[in-house]
Amino acid sequence: MSEQDATYDAEAMQEKWRAVWDEIDPFTAHDDSPREKRYALTMFPYPSGDLHMGHAEVTALHDVIARYWWQRGYEVLNPIGWDSFGLPAENAAIRNDAHPADYTYGNIETQAASFKKYAVSFDWSRRLHTSDVEYYKWTQWLFLKFHELGLAYRKNSPVNWCPNDQTVLANEQVLADGSCERCGAEVTKRELTQWYFRTTAYAQELLDSLDDLQPTWSDKVVNAQRNWIGRSEGAHVDFSMHLASGEDRTVSVYTTRPDTLYGATFMVVAADAALAGEIVAPDQRAAYDAYLAEIRKASDIDRMSTERPKTGVDLGITATNPVTGEQIPVWAADYVLADYGTGAIMAVPAHDQRDLDFAKQFDLPVRRVVDTGPDDTGNPEETFIATTGDGTYVNSGPLDGMTDKATGVSATIAELEKNGLGEGAVNFRLRDWLLSRQRYWGAPIPIIHCPVDGEVPVPEDQLPVELPELRGADLKPKGTSPLGGASEWVNVACPNCGGPATRDTDTMDTFVDSSWYFFRFLSPQDQTQAFDTDLANAWGPIDLYVGGDEHAVLHLLYARFFTKALRDMGLVNWDEPFSAYLSQGKVINNGRKMSKSLGNGVSLGDQLAEFGVDAVRLTLVFAGPPEDNIDWADMSPGGSVRFLQRAWRLSGDVTSAPGLDPMTGDVALRKVTHKTLHEVEGLIESHRFNVVVARTMELVNATRKGIDSGCGPRDPAVREAVEAVAILLSLVAPYTAEEMWERLGHEPTVARAGWPVVDEALLVDDSMTAVVQVQGKVKARLEVSPDISEADLEAAAMTDARIMGLLEGKTIKKVIVRAPKLVNIVAEA
């Protein structure tokens, strides 16, 4: 077939080049390569079906960087794996009377085939799945190391409980209406002994390290992390509670405003905190128990809502305010959470709206201790509007008349410390990570419970603790976890004493799997260790991590915690796992999130079949900045097809042979080519991928003009320009780029062709356009030398015929010159 008869056939190109790439395997990263290493990572997918538009967007954006780094001469590690444990597979197995692995690995193979079709530059030799025994063996090993260091521990606590799925839910898995995000059942509270990771041990470092990440992470993500960690300074204040038995019990309360202690007129204990049940007076026990049963039906999100009516029950005891000596009542309520400090707060209703609402509801005393001045809305006891600003202390003993809050806080802390009633303290909103799940399809926790020896770690030489073979009905909730019902698996001999013991029947939160997978990618076939420390230090930390905002808090925080713990174990020398983080937006449709129920879902498979892989990738990258949402209803993949056809036709029009010296070619076209390449380098490093596509389109247009009405198809500058287009397109539209590269007479693959060397001399303009304004309006444009002086530029403007005509008969008041770009003339009649 002649070049004139050739047609752009996306499907044929896809079939042809996939086979070639499979054979030459261009993206396998070699540990011993002398080239500088770069680690590119995109959040690995969950196998819940075939790839969707979100996968298409994130991998297209990610691939621009990975492919660019290859072109720039780096050895690039760009691995792929699957986050393959989780509840959806378990639910599917119950529905289909099957094993979760059937659902999981079937979907993985479907997604793997789609990723290969989508031509992402993954290193397939490092593929892993977190549900593989070879992977979760090392997840268990890491758990044991954390347990050994005291970073993994067990405690009894109230947790979100889904009665349908029979499992614990993290707060973020409970919807605003108090229902389970998975099944829609009403979530309740339940007391369970659960496993935790001690993330709070690294709270301050996790916060401090954000300063180093600020330049390369988005402000939105950094701020989300800061808010989640939530550092505050204040004091621990000791209140002496007087129990009905006649005993006294000291309870420490954390407050950021110890200076308002004189306004503390009652205390509130979280109704579901163990403390409340321990201190309630006998004659209030029945009322308390009834209230506790009621509030356990509410989610933490619902309980913290400012719109929720205040409810509570008097615990029938009092406590001593440590600075006033007053006896104040102690109540249980639902607006205080059990995991906040000791689960108790001092209530200062005059200056906290929730406390004031509670005081109003139950006719409790209110005392104003800060006069906020002219903006004060009045006495909160009368207005029921709390005053929260700073001002002059009143009704505050030795603080009366002071106006500086910092002085008031420090003076109060000093007095508390002097009298042994408290001390200054730092507190964090961050809580330890609840990782226990009452599910089957997860990594079993490698602990054995012995009535003699207590918690006994499974010996390392007995890892992995493999999941028993359960399927279908065996996975249904039965009042215990699926593993709890597998008696043959549960009952074992204690490794210490040899007596009867039981395995832990919880599995780990899937966030555990995804908190260290980037380490396993470094040596995924190594069965002697979780990962190779030398390789980790050679490749890491990850140079760029790409993912969605939905993981901007927990996943990133947990991965950061893991990295710091592994560093302290001597397994890696990184402080932070992700040097740079790029957060991509969502693909929506007609202004709304894609949803089957809304009927606005877009099938990625259908889009690829209709327009081809390259057009879909190009459309997603060109749509806008990576962090913005993409409304597919506004996109034009058909327009992307037409552009790719125009670019592809250039490669058939070139008539010069490969290897010609481009320096003999048309200078004007060469300037466009080299300026484009130079600008693209900066655009990619700043993640302005959509502008990269725009500049490539401009180069295609300039090259077409050069072929059709300029220097002609034989000119070496045309070949140089078309080769540059092919290399640029290899970042976004790899099939088209590869076909162009072959038509230009080169061997595959264009993805490893190397970035063209930019000739700095061609970046200098021979002339540029200066704008001439009269009265602030553009009236003329002059072609001038880039190094023209201000005097010469002014003279050129004043002698321009158009400007002379406009100024005739007018008095020039001022001339502003900014060589070589601007002359602004102010004149009046």
Mean pLDDT: 93
Given as residue ranges, the uncertain stretches (5+ residues, pLDDT < 50) are none
Number of H- or I-type helical stretches? 28
Number of strands: 32
* Percent of sequence in beta strands: 15-25%
What does this structure look like?
With 829 residues, the chain is α+β, with helices and mostly antiparallel strands. It contains 28 helices and 32 strands. Strands 8, 9, 10, 11, 12, 13 and 16 form a seven-stranded mixed beta sheet that branches. Strands 2-1-24-25 form a four-stranded parallel beta sheet, covered by helices on one side. β8 and β9 form a beta hairpin. The relative contact order is 0.11.
Key words describing this protein structure:
alpha+beta, single chain, four-stranded parallel sheet, 829 residues, seven-stranded mixed sheet
What's the layout of helices and strands?
Blueprint: H1 10-24, E1 37-42, H2 53-71, E2 75-77, E3 79-82, H3 87-96, H4 100-117, E4 123-129, H5 133-148, E5 152-162, E6 167-169, E7 188-197, H6 203-208, H7 210-213, H8 219-229, E8 231-242, E9 248-255, E10 266-270, H9 274-279, H10 285-295, H11 300-303, E11 312-320, E12 327-333, E13 344-347, H12 353-362, E14 370-371, H13 380-383, E15 392-393, H14 405-418, E16 422-428, E17 433-434, E18 436-437, E19 447-450, E20 454-457, H15 487-490, E21 491-493, E22 500-503, E23 507-508, H16 510-514, H17 517-520, H18 533-539, E24 544-548, H19 554-568, E25 581-584, E26 587-589, E27 592-593, H20 604-611, H21 613-622, E28 630-631, H22 637-653, H23 667-685, H24 689-709, H25 716-729, H26 734-743, E29 768-774, E30 777-784, H27 790-798, H28 801-807, E31 811-818, E32 822-828
Parallel strand pairs: 1-2, 1-24, 3-4, 10-12, 24-25, 26-28, 29-32
Antiparallel strand pairs: 5-6, 5-7, 7-17, 8-9, 8-11, 8-16, 10-13, 11-12, 14-15, 18-23, 19-20, 19-22, 21-22, 26-27, 29-30, 31-32
Helix pairs in contact: 1-26, 2-21, 3-4, 20-21, 21-22, 22-24, 22-26, 23-24, 23-25, 24-25, 25-26
